[in-house]
Amino acid sequence: MAIKAAFEMVKEATAEIETISPAEAIRRKDDEDFLLVDIRDPRELEREGRIPGAYHAPRGMLEFWIDPASPYYKPIFGEKKKFVFFCAAAGRSAISVKTLQDMGMENIAQLGEGFSGWRKAGGPVEGGRNG
Question: The domain spanning residue 96 has which CATH number?
């Protein structure tokens, strides 16, 4: 049995989802109808810091937090916002956004280049040990 390469899955997902540039996300970060969603592991947040105001939704719970029929549903995901998911470098977020799109979630995108792109573009970061 051949395993499909993770980076091939990322490439395919990226072709089917919207990607927002770090510069655009920085411009829109204070817009009340725009929410950055950090799907990184809690250890990554502790080590690298976080984007102020971003909502943390760990990747492992994402589908369950999005599904209104799930006992783990988070009402924030029922709000009328543009949800922009990100991880460290836009791999996990690409696959996540594609999965959520397949579940029927609308008005979603990923942050191009992820948290590293945000940092590189000069976006604000709080906390972290590597700051």
Answer: 3.40.250.10
